[in-house]
Amino acid sequence: MVQPDAGDITLRHVLLIEDDLTLGELLVNVFTRHGAATVLWFVRARPVEGKDSKGLVLIDPDGRESVFPMQKPFDIAFVDYRLKMSQLTGLEVTRKLTAGGVKVIACSGLSCLNEEMLQAGAQAGMEKDKIFSRALRESDFINQLCSP
Predict the structure, then answer these.
(1) What is the pLDDT of residue 31?
(2) SS3 state of residue 16
(3) DSSP label at 14?
(4) Would you tell me how many other CB atoms lie within 10 Å of the CB of residue 73?
(5) In the prediction, which pLDDT does 2 show?
(6) Count of domains for the chain
(7) Strand 65-68 to strand 56-59: parallel, antiparallel, or no bridges (unpaired)?
(8) Helix (H, G, I), strand (E, B) or coil at 5
(9) Between 20 and 30 A from 114 (CA), which of 68, 104, 126, 145?
(10) 75: domain CATH number?
(11) Angle between helices 21-32 and 128-137 (to 10 degrees)
């Protein structure tokens, strides 16, 4: 496989919402291994309290919270459907992210759940094993998904 020239790499900012700690760590590693992406990883989501129905609070694996939209925009988000111990499902998170202008890839292990997320606004759906396989094989995998 031919690696892209360092001058050809566009650094992409990836939002990962995956509740499984092992899978989350693996996805962060495969997304960042070629140096073409930075990843912010969250395991749970809840709505912002108060009047702002568009708000979204994302919780990382250490319990720290961040409010979306964040200062750093994301090029793409990978969202799992079932988020254990989360107030919101991946379906609800997908709606909020797409309303905020983020391109979402549904990444449930079940294609029927990815289909639901596609109907909620996700631009594509991929089962996790296919994401791992492609990200390991293709150094420009994230960049390809970010392209119009």
Answers:
(1) 93
(2) strand
(3) E
(4) 11
(5) 39
(6) 1
(7) antiparallel
(8) coil
(9) 68
(10) 3.40.50.2300
(11) 30
Domain membership of residue 6 (yes or no) is no
Domain assignment of residue 82, given as a range? 11-146
Token pair listed for 116: 């639901």
User: CB under 8 Å to 130, separation ≥6 — which residues?
Assistant: none
Write the DSSP string, 122-146.
-SEE--HHHHHHHHHH-TTHHHHHH
What are the two backbone dihedrals, phi and then psi, of residue 118, each rounded to the nearest 5 degrees? Answer: -60, -40
Residues 87, 35: Cα–Cα separation, whole Å: 33
Instruction: Let me know if residue 5 belongs to a domain.
Output: no
Mean pLDDT in runs of 10 for the chain (148 residues)?
51 95 95 90 90 80 89 88 94 92 92 93 93 90 88
Q: How far is CA 145 from the centre of its chain?
A: 12
Note the pLDDT of residue 147: 83
Return the structure tokens found at 89: 């499902």
The encoded tokens of residue 30 equal: 């495969």
Axis-axis angle for helices 111-119, 90-99 (nearest 10): 30
